[in-house]
Each structure stands twice: as C-alpha cells, then as structure tokens.
Design goal:
alpha+beta, 8-stranded antiparallel β-sheet, 7-stranded antiparallel β-sheet, Rab-GAP_TBC_sf, cytoplasm, GTPase activation, metal-binding
C-alpha cells in the first residue's frame, strides 16, 4: 500500500528493522519478528508494539523508504502485509521511477518528484476507494490492519475503529476494536498472546453501557451466550452509538425487512460510513421529534433566538432545516417548538443586516422572527429557493383559522366527508347541562390558546399545550388536533387525491387481507351506533382496504380495526386513513407486522420501567412476563380495547401528542393505582381479575356523549367492589409521577430491547426446527444447533455484501418454521462443499447440483434445513446401503434432469441460483402469499396429507439405471476416491465391479437372443464406449422391430449394483468409515466467512 510520504528517523530503528533490498534511492525493509527466524524475544516485543501503537510502520511487516545519497533523511512511501505485495511495489519503482531520477540535478528535486508521484498514486487509488472518511490516510492504515488480522472477504466495509481494552475474565487486553458493516472485531497481541474476536451484528443478543466496581464504564456485548466487555474507550458514548446503529442496521436489514425497505439511505452495505450513520441517526431523531414524513432528512442546523410573542422574550434554540420543513426547538426541548412547512411560507425578509436576523412570514398573517443567526444570509437564500419550489397553489387559506382538511375537495362522492361522531351524535348548541357547559369551557380554553400560540401547522407547541391535552380535548376539536399532533396533516397536504385513488384501485380486490377485514368489520366497536349502520361499516372497510393496498407488507393486522374505528369517529374518512398511516408507519413502528415485533419491544421497555419505578411490585412478582402478556392489548389498541370508549379517547389524545411515552406512563399509573391489590393476589388469574375490574370502573365524568354512545361498564354494576376512577385524574397522575420519563430514554431502551426480542424469536424458530429435524436424523442436539447456525449464516452471507440480495426475498417470517430460511443452489453449493464427507474432484459443481436437485423434493429451487440435514445425515451416518442408494438416485431424475445443460455450462443459472419451475410444482402455491394473492388451502392440505401418508422407500422401488447413467455413476465413484490414500485399490475395485456387471448383462442378453427378432452387435466393445457412442448405437437399434430392447438390455437394477459392490471389501470399508462430525463442523465454521 502506498503511503503519504512521511519523514522518519532511522538512527534508532536498526534493532527493529532488517534491510532486505536497497539501491541508490530506495530501501526495502522487513520488521524483526516476521518472516524467517521469528525474531525470538525481539519478535515478541515488536509484535506487542505493533498492536498497541497506532502507526503503519509499526504494523505492516514490510516497508519501502526513499532517501538520497547526500541526505540523512528517510521518507516512508510504501508498506505491505506480505512479501509479494511489497515486492510488487519495489518492482514498480524500479521500472517507472529509477530511470527518471537520473535526469535531476539536486537531491531536493529528486525527493520532490518521488513525493509527488506517490501522492498521485494515492489520489488515483482514492478515486475508486470506498473510504469516505475525514482522515483518509489513517483510515487506510486501519483498513490494512483490519484486512490483515481478520481475513474477511474484501467486500467487507470497515466503518470505524477505536483503541480499547477487552476483558478476558479479570484480565484486560489492550488492542483495537474494529466496527464494520457486518462484524464487530477485536485484535490484541501482547508478548506472544494473540486475542482475536469476530462477532457478526446479527448474532448479538444485548448491547448496553454498564459500570461496576472494576470497570467504571464499559460496553457490554452478549453473543452466543458469552459476555464481552470493552472499556478504556476515549469516546465511549460515540463508540456505543455507532455500535448501536450498526446492530440496528443489521437487524432491520436481515430480520425486519419491512422496516429496512423504508430506509433507502442505508440500502447499500458497501456505502455505509461513520459519517453516514451519524447523519442518518440525526435525521431519524429529527423526524421522530417533529413527527415529519419519513422522506425528510436533516440538512442544516443553525443556533438562533426566536421571538416568542406569548412570552414577550427571545428563546434560544436551534433551527432545523429539511427538504420541506423549517423547524425550531428551544434549547431544553420542552419550552416550545414549532414546525413550519415550506408550503406555508409566503415570504422571507431580512429586516436589518446588522442584527443577523430574518423574518419568516407564513399564511394566516403570521410571522416568526429569528435573530442572531450566524449564517443568516445563506439561510434566507436557502429558504427562498425551497419555498419557491415547494409552494403549493392549492393552499390558499388567508385567515388565521387555517383549515387542516386539505385534499377533501377532490374526494370521490363515495368517500365520507364527515366524522362519524358529528353524524351520529351532533352537538346540541342549546343544551346547557353541566357536561356541555364544561365542554364549552374546554373549547374556549383552546380558542384562547390558538389566539396566543397560533392555529394549524405552524402552531407553537408548549407546556401549556400539554396541560390542555391532559385535561381533555373537546369533542369538536379532537380530529383537527389528532391530525396536527401526529403529523398526518402534512402527509395529507402533500398527497392530495391519493386516498381517493387508493380506494378506487382497491375496490373489488380479493386478498387474504380483505377476507380478514370483512370478518372483523362487525367486531369493531359493535356497541356504537355508527358501526351498527352501513355508513360506518363502509367507511371502515374503505380505510382498512386502502391501507392494505398501500402497504401489502403489513396488509391487515388485528387491532387495526379497533383503532381505525375510533379514528373514524372524530376524523373524516381521508383524515382517518392518514392518521392510520402515521400510527402504523411512524408512531408505532413494527407493531402491525406478522410478528408484532414493535409491541413486544415496547413490552420489554415497559418491564424495564416497572423495575425502575415500581420496585415493590418487582419484589413480589419476580417474573414480570405476566405484565407483558396482560399489557399486549394496551399497546396494540392504545387502551381502547380495555377502557370504555369515552375514556379511551382521552388516552388517544395523549398518545398523539407524546407518542408511546404516554402509553407507558399510563401503564405504570394503572399498576401503581392497583399496587396493594396486586401484591396481595395469589396467582395470575386473580391479578387479571383485579385489572379488569379496575378498567371497568374507569369513567369520564366530563364526557358529553349520551348513554347510547357510551360503553356500559361491568364494574359499575358492582359498586361495592370498586370505586369509580376518572380518566382525567388517572392521566394527570400518570404525568405527575412518571412525566420525567424522557422520549430519548424510551428510544434508547427500544433499540436495546429490540436486539433481545428479535434474537428470542429467532431462537424459538431454531428450537422448533431442531425439534422437528432431530426426529429424522442421527445428529445430536448440539450438532444440529451448529448445523443450523451454519445454514442460517450461509443464508445471510449472500446478503452481507449485496444491495438487493435474492436470499432476503426467500426469508419470510410468516411461513412455517422450516421454510423461513432456505438456500438457493449457489448458497447450497458453497455450504455443502464445506461439509461434504468426501473430497469430490473436478465435477464438484455438477455433483452439487445433482444433490441439490435430488433433495429439493417439491422442485421449487430452494432447500430448507430439514432437507439439507437429511441428505447430510445419510452421507455422514447412513449405512452402506443407504449411502449407495443416495448416490444411485443422484443419477436418476430429477437428479440428472439438467445433465445436458450442464455439459454446456454448470452455472448458467439465474443470479440467485434458483432453478425456476412451473408454479404448480412449488411450495409457494400452497403456503406463500405473493403480494395480494390468496392461500390455496386445499392444495396445502393435500400436500400435508401426502407427506403424512408417504411410505418408506425400499430398494425395489428404485427404477433401473441405463447405460449413460451407469457410466456417469462410475465416474462419480472415481471422483469420490480422488486423493484418498487407498485411491489405487478403490479404483481397481470399481473397475472390477463395472466389469462384473457388464458380464452379467452380456449373459442375460444372450439368454434373450432366441426370442429377439434381431441379433444385436457384440456387447464387449459397446460396454467400453463413451455415452456418445451409445447414442449412435441406440439410434441404430431404434430401426428394429423392438425399439425398447436396447434400453432393457443396457440397464441395471439397484440390487445388482449393491450386490456387486458388497463383494469389494475396500469399497465397503470406505463407505462405512465414520465421519468426525465435530471436526467437520469446526472446520466449516472457520472457513465459512472466507468463502462468501
């Protein structure tokens, strides 16, 4: 590797370096302790220095120095890991530089020319390099060490590296931590003791910052049941954040594809950089805080003061600019923040250049004044250009009462344009009962808030806003405020007419999702009058069907119907759709997928908060899994399924303002309220009864809804069992006691627990697969565990370094356990070559394809773990007869189905290695959902019945093998024996068996001669011919009266082949020789990463 020329002192370096080549201008040196001799104690000391100190010259074992005869100064210009690499650089210098140097007169000119040439070479390399770091030179040095020490495939992308200590028991090892796209690596070398650690991110169960008596602060990594601790990091927080992001990136990319495909910025693993990860994390935090669409990215951040009219002072904060939004948040993040869509900006003014201020004018005759902006001129220009592009002509509101219902004017007449609550429960203006008066007072409070803080998309969010939310939102304003707080108003404004198009496109479609939607329509708030009529049911059907059409990966999930029903009560139909989009895709990520991963993660977060805030409950109930099971419906339906509707909507108010934090706080408040009763209960059933009674007793004393709309409470019928609890008081108590829970802490806990949840689900899958497979193979449970890990890793290896890996398409968590991980031919071929019991020779690729075709029972071009293990078990532990039967079947259809194609090219296969079959032959017809396709349950049941009734195959069931197949069978045996110490005797045995079988056939043929209408040619010559000669003979015999006679004569049964081979002790002992399974698995584990 060429290095940026750097001056070095050679005076004290003679003890560390040995000169191997030199000339007038260059010196090639080798590091002591490397190469021949080892270096003894000096080599140990040098190796230790090489690891601990950060310098290329102290790591690379070879280097080239430049010097001039009349100077004592040396310049390092190249280094190399191997002798071949450094000699290649040396030869290049001899051929391209040495002749040119003779034309210079002075040493300074020579040195200047050499340095310029080397810098030019480095710059040329940098053009094609993937290294996009702040300090490319140091990063190139680190990348050199990374490749040298870990020998990972060259495609692996190093992201960053840190000096740290790794703890082995109670002993720290000082070394280097390398974080790459797919692996966490550590290397240390201290006085001859080498420590090397490679962990793939998808194997990590837990990643967290910890501290104890010995380690003041460290990073804890749990993988494969082993704990790893890294400490003495100069930038521990930065290191942890990068590790967390890489682990999360791997989990999303390999296990949670629904979430990953929504993040195109990280789609290419070869382009991941530290800078890119940091930018992505900031953008994600920015979008979460301001509830912006997923397409927005944080582009610029400016410190400034914002004039707050309601407080009459300037508040310090940060301006955050994205493609379509200008946002401001005060310094503590809680005083106030404001979101200004570019489409709402009408002008950007600079009142006074001396004050570094600018004024942003928005629709509704409002203006926001930012002052003390360092680069206010550029910011003003940026805003003007973006507003010119982003201005939306359809937004023409000019009054302060900014309407939020953008896009409805284009709606189809089939789409409801009124919230169901206004249709089925219109407010009586003249009604002056106490509840209605209180409702009017709430509306007045909000109107005062709007007059002070603004209304619509550019409203200020402050502590007062949260206080009003906690007290309860008026019925008339609920839909408007939900749209605003969730950010759905921006989605709707930027996609006019989108919902109407979806409704029209999805109308009449029939999928599994639509079937489930129809089944659940009448289960959605059945007690509410709105959903006892066709109006409400039709609106609910349209919203759910449109969303399933928009997002087929989620489609429809139970609990979505309950949530959407409540949304339709207070929001217009199109607004309800965009609210559902905001909930499913932003506010509750991964909640409504096949494995409800998001809900499980938040339950784990809830358990952590219980341990922290309710220690008394933890002491009594050590197993908190009960709370996970009982609280699942709380999270999935935002308490709608357990609380009366008039109380549940208050919870939804808080959720749209504070996100999942509001649900966690309320959950803690519920447990705290029932603390004494839960501590005194004796079993889980009693605890469930206590909580159910509590929820039944929750009321909303301020609700203006009539009794026909409100849900009847079971608990209210039993007044002695429970006092009534007002929902407003319960929410207020939740905010007072647990309002200090920060959203940042919740997000961090989510990331930490997501690793554990995903790995627990994956482990459950593995255990179920192993339990099924163990009944059909002789492998032990530990061996099956290792085999499964190898199989799964092989599936992922093709995903590590490619942007769109076909293997990811084969991974579907919704399928049966055995079908979740499958290998195409290319993946199978690599893994089988690592585990094969015999050293197949030149036809390895051909034989691998035959095996693949044989074990792929349903001919869909994919092999699952069970099929793979059964084949491997036969070759490892099967009897002589079973092994021979397996090899025999390889040369029968479907094993040799593509032999002719393979004669042209063994690898003329699609990119993913899947040999496409007609759809009726694949398992995909039976169990897979393709986009909006339906499951053929009858075909699936028929396949299942056939598998149950499948009988054991006997040797008499096998068809006879013809001459072409028999010749290929003999060649396969020769290939298997290649390289074996007893190769010669095995070859002779096969030749003897072949000769014996052919003589048997000749005798049988002669016995049939009297009854044959024609007399065939001599068989001795034909027996030794090639398959091409056989084809000619076959075409000649086809003109005879008995066209099938040739085929009958030149075929062998399996019994004949078996009987002949049993007569050869050398062959029997070869096939019955036991295989060291443990050694094979260990070798494959080491070699797997080196053969992607």
């Amino acid at each position: 590797m060429w290095l940026k020329p750097e001056e070095i002192l050679l005076k004290n370096a003679f003890k560390l370096w040995v000169t191997e080549k030199d000339n007038e201008y260059f010196v090639l040196q080798r590091r002591r302790g490397y190469g021949e001799g080892g270096g003894g104690l000096t080599g140990l000391l040098v190796g230790t220095l090489d690891t601990v100190l950060d310098s290329t010259s102290k790591v690379a074992p070879y280097r080239i120095l430049h010097h001039t005869p009349d100077s004592q100064v040396y310049w390092s210009i190249a280094c190399g890991v191997t002798r071949e690499e450094i000699v290649q650089h040396w030869d290049w210098l001899q051929q391209n530089i040495m002749r040119t140097l003779s034309v210079f007169d002075s040493s300074e000119d020579i040195t200047s020319f050499v340095q310029g040439k080397i810098r030019g070479l480095i710059a040329e390399e940098g053009k094609s390099s993937l290294v996009l770091e702040e300090d490319p030179e140091k990063f190139r040095e680190a990348h050199l060490r990374f490749e040298k020490w870990f020998e990972l495939p060259t495609e692996e992308k190093l992201v960053t590296y840190y000096s740290c200590s790794y703890w082995r028991g109670k002993v720290p090892c000082q070394g280097w931590l390398y974080l790459s796209t797919n692996f966490l690596c550590f290397y240390s070398y201290l006085l001859g003791s080498e420590v090397k650690l490679v962990i793939s991110w998808d194997e990590i169960w837990r990643l967290e910052k910890t501290s104890n008596v010995i380690l003041t602060e460290s990073i804890h990594v749990l993988a494969h049941g082993e704990d790893h601790y890294f400490s003495m990091l100069l930038h521990l927080n930065e290191t942890f954040v990068i590790m967390e992001q890489l682990a999360d990136y791997s989990i999303k990319r390999l296990f949670d594809k629904e979430a990953f495909q929504r993040e195109p910025a990280l789609s290419d693993p070869l382009q991941i950089t530290k800078r890119g990860l940091e930018a992505h994390a900031k953008s994600e935090q920015f979008r979460t805080f301001f509830r912006l669409p997923k397409e927005e990215n944080l582009l610029e951040v400016h410190e400034s003061f914002l004039w707050v009219p309601f407080s009459h002072f300037n508040t310090l904060g940060k301006i955050c600019l994205s493609e379509n939004y200008l946002c401001f948040a005060s310094q503590d993040g809680s005083q106030c923040h404001v979101i200004i869509p570019m489409r709402e900006v009408v002008n950007v003014e600079k009142p006074d250049s001396g004050s570094r201020a600018l004024t942003v004018c928005v629709r509704g005759k409002r203006a926001l004044r930012f002052s003390e902006v360092r680069d206010f001129q550029r910011l003003a220009n940026t805003l003007r250009s973006r507003c010119g592009i982003s201005a939306s002509p359809q937004h023409s509101a000019s009054s302060e009462d900014v309407t939020l219902m953008v896009g409805q004017k284009d709606s189809s007449k089939a789409v409801s344009t009124e919230a169901l609550m206004t249709v089925f429960h219109p407010q009586d203006v003249e009604n002056l009962d106490p509840k209605m008066l209180k409702e009017k007072m709430k509306e007045q409070s909000w109107n005062i808030h709007f007059s002070e803080y603004g209304r619509g998309t550019s409203m200020f969010f402050t502590r007062k806003t949260r206080d009003l939310i906690v007290r309860g939102v008026p019925e008339a304003l609920r839909g408007e405020l939900w749209m605003l707080f969730s950010g759905a108003v921006n989605d709707m404004a930027t996609h006019p007419g989108y919902y109407t198009e979806l409704v029209e496109q999805s109308l009449g479609t029939s999928t599994l999702a639509t079937d489930e939607i129809e089944r659940d329509l009448h289960r959605s708030l059945p007690e509410h009058p709105a959903f006892q009529s066709d109006t409400g049911i039709s609106a609910l059907r349209r919203v759910l069907t449109a969303y399933a059409y928009r997002n087929p990966k989620i489609g429809y999930c139970q609990a979505m119907n309950i949530l959407t029903s409540v949304l339709l009560l207070y929001a217009k139909e199109e607004e309800a759709f965009w609210l559902l989009v905001a909930v499913c895709e932003r506010m509750l990520p991964d909640y409504f997928n096949r494995r409800i991963i998001g809900a499980l993660v938040d339950q784990a977060v809830f358990e952590d908060l219980i341990r922290e805030h309710l220690p008394q409950l933890v002491e009594h109930m050590t197993d908190l899994s009960f709370f996970s099971s009982v609280s699942l419906s709380w999270f999935l339906t935002l308490f709608i399924s357990v609380l009366p509707i008039e109380s549940a909507v208050n919870v939804v108010d808080c959720f749209f303002y504070d996100g999942i934090k509001a649900i966690l706080q309320l959950g803690l408040a519920v447990l705290d309220y029932n603390m004494e009763a839960l501590i005194s209960c004796h079993d889980d059933a009693e605890a469930v009864t206590i909580l159910n009674k509590f929820f039944d007793s929750v009321t909303n004393k301020d609700s203006p809804l009539p009794p026909t709309v409100q849900q009847a409470s079971v608990g209210n019928n039993d007044k002695a069992s429970h006092f009534n609890v007002d929902i407003s008081e319960l929410i207020r108590e939740a905010y007072e006691k647990y309002g200090n829970i920060r959203s940042e802490e919740v997000e961090s806990s989510r990331k930490r627990n997501k690793l554990h949840v995903i790995q627990t689900l994956e482990d459950t899958t593995k255990q179920n697969v192993i339990r099924v497979v163990s009944q059909e193979v002789k492998f032990s449970a530990s061996q099956l565990d290792e085999l499964y890990n190898l199989f799964k890793r092989q599936h992922f290896l093709s995903c590590y370094w490619t942007m769109k890996s076909p293997a990811l398409l084969h991974h579907d968590p919704s399928l049966a356990y055995l079908e979740q991980y499958q290998l195409g031919f290319q993946q199978f071929s690599v893994l089988f070559s690592l585990l094969e019991p015999w050293a197949f020779c030149t036809s390895k690729s051909t034989l691998s394809l035959w095996i693949f075709r044989l074990i792929d029972e349903n001919q869909d071009g994919l092999v699952n773990f069970k099929e793979f293990c059964c084949a491997l078990d036969t070759l490892y532990s099967g009897s002589f007869t079973n092994k021979l039967k397996f090899l025999f079947k390889l040369h029968l259809p479907p094993g040799d189905l593509f032999t002719c194609c393979l004669c042209i090219s063994a690898f003329d296969l699609p990119e993913d290695g899947v040999i496409r079959k007609s759809p009726e032959r694949g398992r995909s017809l039976c169990v897979k959902l393709t986009g909006r396709g339906k499951v053929d349950l009858q075909a699936y049941l028929k396949q299942w019945q056939n598998e149950i009734l499948k009988k054991e195959e006997t040797i008499k069931d096998l068809p006879r093998i013809n001459q072409t197949q028999f010749i290929q069978f003999s060649k396969t045996l020769y290939n298997i024996f290649h390289g074996n110490p007893e190769e010669e005797s095995l070859y002779r045995a096969v030749a003897h068996v072949t000769s014996l079988l052919l003589r048997m056939e000749e005798v049988g043929r002669r016995l049939q001669e009297p009854s044959s209408p024609t007399k065939p040619e001599s068989s001795t010559e034909e027996a030794s011919t090639t398959p091409e000669t056989f084809d000619t003979s076959g075409s000649h015999n086809s003109q005879d009266a008995a066209p099938d006679l040739s085929e009958l004569e030149w075929s062998f049964s399996f019994e004949q082949v078996l009987a002949s081979l049993l007569n050869e002790p050398a062959l029997v002992s070869f096939f019955e020789r036991p295989v060291d399974v443990h050694a094979k698995l260990g070798q494959a584990k080491v070699a797997q990463l080196k053969t992607p």
